[in-house]
Design a protein that fits this description.
mainly alpha
């Protein structure tokens, strides 16, 4: 379970990533874990092809869910930033740039 400090640190990292407009959607450790599981699943194809395909389907679904959750967290962070009080035009300009970066990351442009 994450502590309050860990959650704040994660929010800071997410904010920095959004500010930079770059960064992987998932943490490197998460990507490695998913890739390792994918390779294990492929190796199992020889022994049980049907089970391997079912496992691949489940793994792709899990990866999609993680990516969606990551983008949702980024979007909520942005929403929190611009919806507090009465933002200045400069704050709104910076926010739209962050939204553009998020959008481009989603489309991998």
């Amino acid at each position: 379970m994450s502590t309050g400090n860990e959650l704040r640190e994660r929010d800071v990292r997410a904010s920095e990533t959004l500010d930079a407009g770059t960064g992987a959607v998932l943490e490197a450790d998460d990507c490695r874990q998913l890739l390792d599981r994918w390779h294990e699943t492929e190796l199992g194809f020889v022994e049980d092809p049907r089970r391997a395909v079912e496992a691949c389907d489940a793994l792709v679904t899990e990866a999609m869910d993680r990516v969606a959750a990551s983008f949702q967290a980024d979007r909520l962070l942005l929403e929190r930033k611009w919806s507090q009080g009465e933002p200045s035009t400069e704050d709104l300009r910076a926010t739209i740039q962050r939204y553009r970066a998020l959008f481009q990351r989603m489309l991998a442009v």
